[in-house]
Amino acid sequence: MAKTSVPTGNTKGEAKAPGLILPLAVLTLLAGATGGGVGIQLASTVAKSVTEQVKAKPAEPETPPMRYSSKDTLMEPLKPIVANLAAPSQTFVRIEASIIYRNGALPNAQIAAAEIRDDFMGYLRTLSLSQIEGPSGLLHLREDLNERAKLRTQGHVDELVLETLVVQ
């Protein structure tokens, strides 16, 4: 028998395979280096802008300024107010509050505080529990009581401060 050689593959194709690996490896390294360079540049730009913003930002005060900090402003505490609500009638509300006014605006602050307290007690007896529930209910109650205090004193009371509110 005569030995015949059978071609196992294309010799030209085998020669091209090592020729493609080198350019692909170079392109991969070039792409990695370009991506790394762009990433470093973006990171330094972001870091630079953040440090500029931090330096440009003024230092925040530790405590906010007081709204009524002058010596001309006085505060008169009201005696605790306890009243039952209109609905449900067995529900009671207890409020402790103070009024803030300018010195000399009220001729007798204790009498004004007693009148405001009496007015609040009458108003609380007209409310239902659903009207004072939640944050918006508390806000509306505070605004209504503030308005009543200002009306009772012809605008001499600057603000009403609710100290406690207990519903039982």
From TrEMBL:
<protein>
    <recommendedName>
        <fullName>Flagellar protein FliL</fullName>
    </recommendedName>
</protein>
<keyword id="KW-0282">Flagellum</keyword>
<comment type="function">
    <text>Controls the rotational direction of flagella during chemotaxis.</text>
</comment>
<keyword id="KW-0997">Cell inner membrane</keyword>
<keyword id="KW-0145">Chemotaxis</keyword>
<dbReference type="InterPro" id="IPR005503">
    <property type="entry name" value="FliL"/>
</dbReference>
<keyword id="KW-1133">Transmembrane helix</keyword>
<keyword id="KW-1003">Cell membrane</keyword>
<comment type="similarity">
    <text>Belongs to the FliL family.</text>
</comment>
<keyword id="KW-0472">Membrane</keyword>
<keyword id="KW-0283">Flagellar rotation</keyword>
<keyword id="KW-0969">Cilium</keyword>
<dbReference type="Pfam" id="PF03748">
    <property type="entry name" value="FliL"/>
</dbReference>
<keyword id="KW-0966">Cell projection</keyword>
<keyword id="KW-0812">Transmembrane</keyword>
